[in-house]
Fold these 4 entries.
Entry 1:
Amino acid sequence: MDVAAGNPARTRDEDAIGTPPASPTLVPAERYYSPAFAALEIERMWPKVWQIACMVDHVWQPGDYFEYRCGPYGVLIVRGDDGVLRAFQNACRHRGNSLCVGSGSGLREIKCGYHGWTWDLAGVLKRVPNRKGFGSLRMSDFPLVPARVEVWEGLVFINLDVNAAPLHEYLEEVPDDIAWCNLGEFRCYATLTVDVEANWKTIADGYSETYHIQTLHPELLRCVDDIHAPQRIWGHTGKSDQPYGVQSPRFEGRLSDEEVWDAYVYTQGALMGAAEGTPFPADERLPGQTVQDVIAARTRAFAATRGVDLDWADTDRITRLHQYNVFPNMTFLANADHLTIMCSRPGPDPDHGEMVMFLMTRLPPGAPHTKPTDIRMSATEAEPGVVLTQDIQLLPGLQRGLHQPGFTHLVLSSEERRVINMHRNLEHYLDLPEPERMTDGGPSVKT
Ligand code: FES
Ligand SMILES: [Fe+2]
């Protein structure tokens, strides 16, 4: 059987590298740990970009609220009595106290816990205790300061810049490219926030390239074609897609179907409801079918147990992982029955950050909306599957290595071009002077 089956990228001869550049791209290492650089990000980048904050199910009902934090910034997202979703900077107009902490339901008004200034859910100031002490204080002068909030496919994004371009413009080609997948039918059952000893970019880089699979994820390599994984860059956004259920061509010779199946079950069997150690169901394979076809059939059957019809999805729709990156800090990985959203956020200093995972499942249309369970844990406690655990456990050593005095630059390949693109966007927002910019790899050469 041909290992290229179900892998159109191979027949198109597209790989993850594309056309090589003349030389590597060199990115100054300092930007991964310098407090001054982190301060510049906080001043010039974070207040300007769209960021995924929560799921629409966190704020589905009037009175539901969610406090989003990113570095020093706090945004309060609240569903008004009128059903409108609004966002505000989370600061009392009196002396700045944070108005809400965490998330919850049943909010009727927004009352500061310090001296009691109170706003309605639309951000209009309603009450100021002992108001006469302020002299002539006009209530209309002190509404809550608004932030932008928009929802795409059930994902709530915020932007502190009220003049920012709309979210759908920011997302560029992504919504059209993934429209076939009906992402809005996925519901988030849990969010997992992991505190890690790494810069937010160190975290994000890990989910912006497939170059590391062959070394860091040896089990995964047995069931993904990491070579024929073409990438695209739009502007703020980019994409890689990778066929699963086939071996990497890096192995000399062929793995058996059983070996590919075992690796898939071991690394992501849960996607088709297969417990660890589930043997290859050779008897289920119809004449001419590949391992991918068997995985697709099992995935369809597993979806059916949740009332989800996947008959519209062929083998490629179920086994090809479509991974999108949205600047600065978000990625989502999708196929017909899988959606995982990840983002990274700055921690208290440049050597710390948060990795946030939104765990989703496709439900039948019309399924009730329930709030996700929000879980927070340390990197040593977190074991979100064999592959992600490998990613998380690498981070502290990676962050420490970046500090070494002899390590001045990251040396990047075009295989890592989504990392390069993140830096290109970052430099644009920070308006870095020329000497502090990365050194471009130069024009492509035909080899
Ligand atoms: S700080 Fe909020 S009422 Fe004083
Ligand atoms: Fe990884």
Note: The chain has two domains: 25-44+168-436, 51-163.
Entry 2:
Amino acid sequence: MKLLVILLFSGLITGCGGNSSRSLPSKLLLVSFDGFRADYLQNYEFPHLQNFIKEGVLVEHVKNVFITKTFPNHYSIVTGLYEESHGIVANSMYDVITKKHFSDFDDKDPFWWNEAVPIWVTNQLQENRSSAAAMWPGTDVPIHNTTPSYFMNYSSSVSFEERLNNITMWLMNSNPPVTFATLYWEEPDASGHKYGPEDKENMYRVLKEVDDLIGELVHKLKVLGLWENLNVIITSDHGMTQCSKDKLINLDLCIDRSSYTLVDLTPVAAVLPKINTTEVYNKLKVCNPHMNVYLKEDIPARFHYQHNDRIQPIILVADEGWTIVLNKSLPKLGDHGYDNSLSSMHPFLAAHGPVFHKGYKHSTINSVDIYPMMCHILGLKPHPNNGTFGHTKCLLVDQWCINLPEAIGIVIGVLLVLTTLTCLIIIMQNRLSVPRPFSRLQLQEDDDDPLIE
Ligand SMILES: [Zn+2]
């Protein structure tokens, strides 16, 4: 009953005054801590991040896109598209028509990025707005001839403090004002690869450093007076899983290197055959029971990873924790890129600011849902995308949302109210009508009706 009243009341309020504070465009800062696996939040202590969540919202699992790698997932967050639709299908790519190559170190050609329009470009096409980026994959590339008005060329050696100083300066002192900004940090991904997520001691140290950076971020926003009016999303591109020297898939044991080109290696290998595709496929198919081998046309639909020329004719997908190698070495103790249905591959999302509820927890959304939510916050018309705005409505104060438990609660509440009212009416009717039959009976006793005789 209490729940029902609260919901009805909050619905009335949001229905009446939801958009009253929209005269000025909202400002949004999107932050990514690379490789922040969702369950780190449960398994380690994050005092600063937990304070941020206490005053905002938490989505415990974000289902990201396949392949669960850095460049593709960061681009999905800012476009709302699956990889086959935005064209950044891996960290290493090869285009057979133009013979162009793409890698983490050679990513500046707009050709690779122009299949989609990231939100910082759309934001900047609005009157009197600009975008800023203290790094994020693609922000230092002129996508559709447009970079953010303020951006930094990517360099892993630039400190978090310098990135934060730049982004807050741009948020405060720019004209036209910066309404959308990004901030990117390489940890805990780098340490997750180096030590593996099961190395508690090292991960504890690194995750404490990450939490301290979140503390710095919040402190700086408060000192500068940005905290109350700025909307901040903290999320990540993917999780991390433990690898092992006992879980290697050595392609050299199955097929001669001269018969194919390896465009991307592990845990999803992209294979471009130099000889007959079926022959290469048949050799790889029986190579290792811990590796699925797909011809491009047979890649499962749930991956949304097929309809793009940059996806190679054969892809190999290692089981969780297995590493595809060309020799016997184990390059990394932790890795990501695996099947996006694995919870170890999922990041989280936390958000704080005037558009977000306070102290609200939500179980899951898709990473492609973040884009339509950000467009809503900024008042932008989204490009066609694979996300669903409805999935994020419960996070936002100006939206009416009912999830399943609440809906069941409302139905039970209404039934209880109706049953109680019906019982009360019956009881009242009985009480009021009890004395009457006796009084009428008395009257009838004295009644001498001549018609009967
Ligand atoms: Zn990453």
Note: The chain is about 35% helix and 20% strand.
Entry 3:
Amino acid sequence: MADIRKIGIIGAGQMGNGIAHVCAAAGFDVRLNDLTMDKVRSGLATINGNMARQVAKDIMTEEERKAALDRIHPSDSYDTLADCDLVIEAASESEDLKRKIFQEACPVLKPDAIVASNTSSISITRLAAATDRPERFIGIHFMNPVPLMQLVELIRGIATADETYEAAKTFVSALNKTPTVSEDFPAFIVNRILLPMINEAIYTLYEGVGSVEAIDTAMRLGANHPMGPLQLADFIGLDTCLSIMQVLHEGLADTKYRPCPLLVKYVEAGWLGRKTQRGFYDYRGETPVPTR
Ligand SMILES: NC(=O)c1ccc[n+]([C@@H]2O[C@H](COP(=O)([O-])OP(=O)(O)OC[C@H]3O[C@@H](n4cnc5c(N)ncnc54)[C@H](O)[C@@H]3O)[C@@H](O)[C@H]2O)c1
């Protein structure tokens, strides 16, 4: 299998731009793709701001920041991914959408390119089946925010070849991150444990056991979590949280994974958390204000 040098990233949202950031900082050539150039530009602006913060904290130099930004090429067409050695899909958490992306993108990719999904929960085996290369398909699940988080979960589908897994492991190590291996079960390891806790926090709010502030303070100070579960849900994105709970509920057929109706209501309102400025907190003012 060819060396991985050029990385294509489909989706320039909070995960896609974070993955582009760490790949470019590690010296990889990156093509960052989204539906429109406006969305790609917005992703690039986030990377620029985050790298500037890293320069201020002496994590990278100004020269390294400029060189890394120069390595990221904006793209609004899959054709520009044709010479990539690895393409990582980081589009919204919807199986139908991801399947459509693979069906459209795979025909233009190099036959030996590896294709990966950053999905938080969806079956890698099922996504692989929507591609023309299930043996060169793998789950590479980065954590949010990508530049700060050390872990990357690797998930093999039933057909993933050993050399694909080895190449993915080498790639993750080149980013100075730590890979772990999870079996291909709904939501893998991290979100299988984390999301039911967040969903339970939302039930706690729904049943009136505590306010947003009380629940987050209780878990920060009482369980020593770095941030409260409702703040974390806003950070992940409530649409993503709901999709993961739906995958757990359907995939494991157990009522303990039933998404909280209040989570459904927030998503229906378009209150998706930080990315839309409103979720369990309202971020439009100077300091976040609880919405319940
Ligand atoms: N948010 C998290 O904490 C987190 C953590 C790990 C993994 N993930 C996973 O990463 C993926 C992306 O999540 P996110 O938080 O970055 O979401 P996001 O909403 O911030 O970004 C999704 C991006 O995908 C783009 N997109 C949609 N359809 C597309 C298409 N056909 N082609 C190209 N781009 C398209 C959207 O325009 C948007 O910019 C999801 O699968 C999610 O489950 C999220």
Note: The chain has a mean pLDDT of 97.
Entry 4:
Amino acid sequence: MAAQNLQSVPAEPTGQAPASAATTEADAAGQAHFDRVIAEDSRIEPKDWMPAAYRKTLLRQISQHAHSEIIGMQPEANWITRAPSLKRKSILMAKVQDEAGHGLYLYSAAETLGQTRDKMMDDLIAGKARYSSIFNYPALSWADMGAIGWLVDGAAICNQVPLCRASYGPYGRAMVRICKEESFHQRQGFEILLELSNGTEAQKQMAQDAVNRWYAPALMMFGPPDDDSPNSKQSMAWNIKRFSNDELRSRFVGMMVEQVKVLGLTLPDDQVRYNEDTKKWEHGPLDWHEFQEVLAGRGPCNAQRLERRREAHDDGAWVREAAAAYAAKQLNKQKEYAA
Ligand SMILES: [Fe+2]
Ligand SMILES: [Fe+2]
């Protein structure tokens, strides 16, 4: 899946209460180490001192990214039973399973910042946490599996490859593996569209319709325009984010322009052009009001996605209980052996 470039929380002062001289000294040394690591473009690890705002920003970003991965399973899981062949069914199942794995890596990375997975999950199912707005759109036809893979996973790759160099070690390392799998996801989506495009006229129309519906939401995955993204600057200063939203969006459009020709389809945007002066790809206007509405929970499928997540969480209660009971039993055994 795909993590959209979710707004990170604003930078804020550490806001610590007056500390003892020893604490102040430790903080000063920690800050100096942190500044040096960032200046060297090296990595901060979980046990390192870090500014409270850096921790909070990362926790917000990584948990939102994790939520996006697991909510992102839903639009495609919806089509597993209706895949047109055994081959397509097994590929789609593998892809959806990959997304669950991405969620797992990212929840684990977020936990290293001091948040429990239970709390993150509670926030998600209570509707308090955000996830990528793209997954609140419905997957209406089999061709949507192609468009999601090609456009949504494609945008995710554009967004996430630079995150492999994020300054927080566990996040960057998780992204390396995720990006490899996202490449497979995009490829399988492209291949679905290619086959449909070379099929009957009705199949080609279905592919074009899916591209038409997913194009603009995919472009909005990069987040609001730079002028309207005040927190990006701080994230870039911390080497979490490497390129601005508009820069990444422009690169993505450039990639899609070439690939859509191979597909024999078109992008639903007659304003795509390469600007020789800025050396950037430009696109038509996007509906940012719609983006904000979907992000605020008023998209076509928000309620359904959260309801399904709640049901899945409840259905999985026995698995969590069994795993906890097994872990307790193993711990007791170890204690008995040690005694
Ligand atoms: Fe994916
Ligand atoms: Fe993913």
Note: The longest strand covers residues 273-275.
